[in-house]
Amino acid sequence: MKKAIYLVGAAALIAAGGAFAQTTAPAGKGDVRKDRREVREDKREVRRDRRDVASDKADLRKDRQELRQDVQKGDKAAAAAERRDIRRDGRDLRRDENKQRADTKDLRRDERDLNKDRVRRAADRKDRRQDRKGE
């Protein structure tokens, strides 16, 4: 008997929880808020990635300049070390450029979602206005 009561109680909680979960967000606002937040976060990531790419390019320029100086001096060991630094900085640059590209794509996708939601909300408002006029 106890088990049956627990089972019925659990089923009621699950049913009520499902109904509650559907009504927690304001009507039509949850998606837009989430999309706007994602757009802001993506813009921050893209700016951060641009700074990383710029600093990687500066490091690469500095290493190339040092390599030229080492080659002119005839310091083969230092030149070899600079070549390794250049390869490492080139890998970092490519990784950061790829990350920036992916974040920019993500930003565009989120902006597109936000615009679709905006259009959908405008159409819903128009439909509601027409329904009120028709009543």
SSE order and pairing:
Layout: H1 2-23, H2 30-73, H3 76-134
Helix pairs in contact: 2-3
Key features of this structure:
mainly alpha; 3 helices; 93% helix; 135 residues
How would you explain this protein's 3D organization?
There is one protein chain. With 135 residues, the protein is an all-alpha fold. It has one domain (29-134). The chain contains three helices and no strands. It has helices at 2-23, 30-73, 76-134. The radius of gyration is 29 Å and the shape is elongated.
- Give the number of domains: 1
The total beta strand count reads 0
Determine the structural class based on helices, strands and strand pairing. Answer: mainly alpha
Q: Which range best describes the helical content: under 10%, 10-25%, 25-40%, 40-55%, 55-70% or over 70%?
A: over 70%
Q: What percent of residues are in strands?
A: under 5%
Q: Which word captures the global form?
A: elongated
Q: Count of helical segments?
A: 3
Largest sheet: none
Give a quick precis of the structure:
The chain has one domain. Helices cover 93% and strands 0% of the residues. The chain has three helices and no strands.
